[in-house]
Specification:
By secondary structure, the protein is an alpha/beta fold. It is built from 15 helices and 15 strands. It is elongated, with a radius of gyration of 27 Å.
Length: 489
């Protein structure tokens, strides 16, 4: 077994980075530095690269995977996330199928299950030049156009990436790796990959086709594919920030969920909460304009109006605009946009009121089977401050149930709501009850029982913004076209 050279940096959940054909651990220098704040990052010289020796005898991708497993043993890592680029993606697949207990999350970037004819023809030609006595340095200019997008090649700022290295590399390692890559065919084993998998491809990749990516995402159970627009084969070089987010952060939080990135406009000013009606909202806007405060949005929390309960005043959960409290709503939206270039955000939570006069959406959800139901099949009603509320599943087409992140095929339409956000505190407080069932008979109360940690002796409980994206319909009216949502601390 070939012993591999490896290094590590950072602290946190472990992640192993596997480079491509002819590369080495240095390929990941920028990425490793970026991820070290959140992960314990292990970079490996695969057999024949960097300081790792060329394997004795025929090289195989499965043998490379075994050597990576040995690195995990030496590093004391029982289970790790794995990011494999190009040939490293083949090694990652072999590690996931040959040693499934060692792989937690899997990211396959710019790779395939079996080499396509175009990539094979190109790399065969490179191999023939090397075998005929050529070295990798003069071959470099022939390879570069296949690795990058046209825009990247045309940008003078990227000249360093397009210059051949001063020291010519030995060809024996490259040839051993290519023979292993050429012989690999993982198509029949894709179904055996149990780790949650993200497949990443640059839209301008000339070596890995969209069909290659589709083969991986269809063959690996529950895999997800992402295309990075404008990037070529070296997607992590051309789009390092996007790749870092896609490849690790989203993969690591695939189970727990993660709020979608906030839109750029939300960073242009303050988000100011307002309650009390149109006049109060306009007065707040006047004050902000007079003080020349940069404003991204007003956040109207009581747009649906209020009701009186034994616990005091609460919002109506019918999620329809209260035109008595907010008369002239369209004019207010237009004034907000005209005076400050800002937007209007509103509040919503995943429950529906069933009181007469405020039950339009409840009746629609009931008729279409969108409500969480009990074991008897009846909708689940949750008493809250003297009134009942009904828990609903997502009405967003292709959206997720409250308890599962899987598409809901029955959700074929959505109500026209002037909303596009939600309240993290309301969602945390308004738990789905034990005994409620969502799609497929799953226990809808499971998320409620998976609550936050409790403060105890010597522990301080800090509440932060929720990391999970909203699990309810998101539809916007003019002025409410918001992606993401403000949270409360």
């Amino acid at each position: 077994m070939t012993a591999l050279e490896w290094s590590e940096t950072g602290d946190g959940p472990p992640v192993v980075l596997l480079h491509g054909l002819g590369g080495d651990a240095g390929f990941w220098t920028a990425g490793a530095a970026r991820w070290a704040a959140e992960f314990r990052v292990l970079t490996v010289d695969l057999p024949g690269s960097g300081s790792s020796p060329v394997p004795d005898g025929p090289a195989t991708i499965e043998g490379f995977a075994d050597a990576v497993r040995d690195v995990l043993d030496v590093a004391g890592v029982a289970r790790t996330h794995v990011v494999g680029f190009s040939m490293g993606g083949l090694v990652a697949q072999a590690l996931a199928t040959g040693h499934p207990g060692r792989v937690d999350r899997l990211v396959l970037a710019s790779t395939y299950a079996v080499m396509n004819p175009q990539a094979r023809m190109f790399l065969d030609a490179v191999r023939d030049v090397v075998v005929a006595g050529g070295t990798l340095r003069p071959v470099f200019p022939l390879v570069c156009p296949w690795l990058f997008s046209v825009d990247f090649l045309a940008d003078p700022a990227n000249a360093a990436w397009l210059t051949a290295p001063e020291d010519d590399e030995p060809t024996a390692g490259w040839l051993a790796q290519y023979r292993a890559q050429q012989a690999f065919d993982g198509r029949d084993r894709l179904v055996d990959i149990a780790a949650p998998t993200l497949v990443v491809r640059g839209a301008e990749d000339r070596l890995v086709t969209a069909e290659d990516t589709a083969m991986l995402s269809r063959g690996i159970p529950d895999a997800r594919a992402v295309t990075v627009e404008g990037a070529g084969h070296l997607v992590d070089v051309e789009a390092p920030d996007r790749f870092a987010r896609l490849g690790l952060v989203e993969s690591y939080t695939a189970y727990t969920g993660r709020m979608r990135p906030l839109p750029d406009w939300l960073h242009e000013g303050a988000v100011v909460a307002v309650q009390g009606g149109t006049d109060r909202a306009r007065a707040r806007l006047d004050a902000l304009v007079a003080a020349d405060v940069p404003l991204a949005a007003l956040w109207i929390q009581d747009w649906v109006g209020e009701r009186t309960t034994p616990a005091g005043r609460q919002l109506w959960w019918d999620w329809q605009l209260d035109t008595t409290l907010y008369p002239g709503w369209p004019a207010l939206l237009g004034e907000l946009a005209a005076r400050r270039g800002a937007r209007m955000l509103v509040y919503v939570n995943p429950f529906l009121a069933d009181q007469p006069g405020h039950d339009q959406l409840y009746r629609e959800a009931l008729a279409n089977g969108y409500l969480v139901r009990s074991a008897s099949g009846a909708p689940v009603a949750i008493p809250n401050a003297g009134v009942r509320r009904r828990a609903r599943r997502s009405l967003q087409p292709g959206g997720a149930d409250l308890d599962q992140g899987h598409p809901h095929p029955a959700a074929d339409r959505r109500p026209r709501w002037p909303v596009d956000g939600g309240s993290g505190p309301a969602r945390r407080a308004a738990g789905v009850p034990a005994g409620g069932l969502a799609r497929g008979g799953r226990d809808a109360g499971r998320r409620r029982r998976r609550g936050p940690p409790r403060a105890g002796p010597g522990r301080r409980l800090i509440r932060t913004r929720p990391a999970r994206p909203p699990r309810w319909p998101l539809a916007a009216a003019p002025g409410c076209a918001r992606r993401g949502r403000p949270g409360r601390t």
